[in-house]
Structure formats: structure tokens, C-alpha cells
Amino acid sequence: MGLSTVDRVCLPVPFYHCFGMVLGNLACLTHAATVVLPAEAFDAAACLRAAESERCTAMYGVPTMFIAMLDEPGFDDVDLTSLRTGIMAGSPCPVEVMKQVVSRMHMDEVTICYGMTETSPVSFQSTPEDDLEHRVSTVGAIHPFVEVKLVDPVTGLTVPRGERGELCTRGYLVMLGYWDDEQATRRSIDAARWMHSGDLAVMHDDGYVNIVGRIKDMIIRGGENVYPREVEEFLYTHPEIVDAQVVGIPDDRYGEAVAAWVVRRDGSSLDAEGLRAFCKGQIASFKIPTHVRFVEQFPMTVTGKIQKFRMRETMIEELGLVTQDSA
User: Which residues span the domain enclosing 288?
Assistant: First the structure.
């Protein structure tokens, strides 16, 4: 990021989380940069005001925070020209959102980070020297002195580049284990000290990686694998959609059905049929959401991570579906 004593970082992420604690406070401390706290908890308007009044050079946040800032009324009246860099991390970053962060927030050097609290916490990162396509559509390349491999979740064998596999990390940054929980540690760290992330990824020939979803989030509809991230990325391209999340719910005929939760822009009249019409002919028919729920916001943790399991539970309850667990 090129942090120095002249930088001022707007830091709206929690301090008890590795994003705020390590990438935020510790990075600023070691580079004598200024930390700007816009509010006690995340507030999109407060972040924009702080960035303008304090002439911040960097903005941190998870994707939902940047989406909220970009959609904040009066966004175009705020002077953000002092911004040059920042970090978007914590959950998969939509390509369209990254493009807007670069163009509308002036964050030409924004970087994406990927990792886990268990890996101290970043193992992949894009750099300002990467071209725009790599910076907005990948999580960058592996950090120095760290190993990575992508494996078939079933066989454990390393997959060829260009194919999906579970991302595993090894090196100095991997934790020793979960406190007082040897069983959980062994489920996550194998005998060769590879940390299994639970994330599905694709590595390209140049070593850059795309995160394509969580193993447990993958939807199997009539024998076809549907990766929610792919559908979400497409829905983001609709001009009336602010945010979208996709989950799988039980279906008597196909095993699972695709369900989308969508946040519309103010004044939008987009309905479920309009959304499906937008998808038709653009993505495979089995990926088009069967169920669409329009909401004001998603259930999430205080660190900004979307809680897809709560979306799934809500849809099952609302539709009166029977799951294997309840059958």
C-alpha cells in the first residue's frame, strides 16, 4: 500500500477483528500513519464525511461497507479526491463494486486482501502495480514465504491450474491451532500443516487467484453445480440492484433451488419476473433464481460478513419447506 507518515487511514472496521487490529492499527503503527475513526460503529455517511474533512488517503472496509458508501445519498457532493488507496477484504469483493471504488472514490491503488484470522490474516493480495483487471477481478497473488495449493475437496489431490479446488495455505502465518480444541484443529490443519480454508478457488497460469465461493455454499440443482458467487456477480451488473446474495434451499424436484436476496436502488420497481427476464439468455437457465426476496439489508455479523445460513433458514421457514434435518 505504500503507507508512510503522510497517510491518513479511514478505519471503520472493528478493532477486535484482524482487519482493524492488524491491517489497520498495526500497519499504521509500524508506518507512523494516522488512523481516522469516523464513528463508534460503521456509518456510511460518517465515513464519507471523515474522508473529506480529514483528507484521508486510504479507506478500509468489507464489500457491504463500500456498497453502502457508494449508494449513500449525497455521495456525489463529497470530495474524495484525497483518497488513493485502501483495502477491501473480509468477504468476496464484487467486480462491479471494485470498479466503482476505483472510478468514483478515486482509489486507483486500492488493494484486495484474502486470508483468514487463522492465517494471521492475509495470504493473498493484489498490488498497485497490477493492471486493473487483476486488481478488480482477483485476490492477487500469494504473499512472500507462503505456500498455497488447490485440492479436490473429495480426493485431496491437487487440481490443475484453471480448475476449481479448495484453497489450502501453509507457512509461518498458519496458526498453531484452536485454543483447547484439538479436534477442530485437526479438521482444519492436516498432518502436513496445510490450513484448509473451506473456500473454492481457481488459480490462473500467472499465479493469480479467484475465489469462486464456499464449499458449503455450493448449490447442487438437478445434478448441476451452481456457484452462488457467479450468479451474484451477474446480478450486480443490473443497474437497479445495489447488492445481491444467493443461497440454495431444498427443492422436491431438483434437490436444491437457487434463491436470491436482492437490495434494490431507491425508486426501483424491479420485481422477481423482471429479474429473471434480465437473467434469461445471459446465464445458464439452471442458475436463474427460482425464488427472489427483496430486502433492505442482509443478516450479517458485526464485522460485515453476510450470514447466508440465516437467509437459508428464513427462506425454508417462509416457504414451509422440509429439510433432511427436520424430516
Answer: 218-319
Rounded CA separation 291/307 (Å): 18
The last residue of a domain, from among 191, 214, 237: 214
Range list of β-strands (E), the chain: 8-10, 34-36, 58-61, 85-88, 111-115, 122-125, 141-142, 146-151, 164-171, 195-203, 209-214, 219-221, 224-226, 241-251, 255-264, 291-294
C-alpha cell at 263: 437490495
For residue 50 the three cell numbers come to 471523515
pLDDT > 60? residue 58: yes
Tell me the β-bridge partners of 142.
124
**What CA–CA distance (Å, rounded) separates 268 from 100?**
20
Kindly report the average pLDDT of the chain as a whole number.
Answer: 93
Averaged pLDDT, 138-155: 95
**Which of the 8 DSSP states describes residue 143?**
P
* Rounded distance between C-alpha atoms, residue 104 and residue 184, angstroms: 43
Q: What is the pTM of this model?
A: 0.81
233 with 190, same domain?
A: no
Cis, bond preceding 121 (omega within 30 deg of 0):
yes
Q: How confident is the model over 293-314, as pLDDT tens digits? A: 999 999 998 778 899 999 999 9
Q: What is the mean pLDDT of residues 258-286?
A: 96
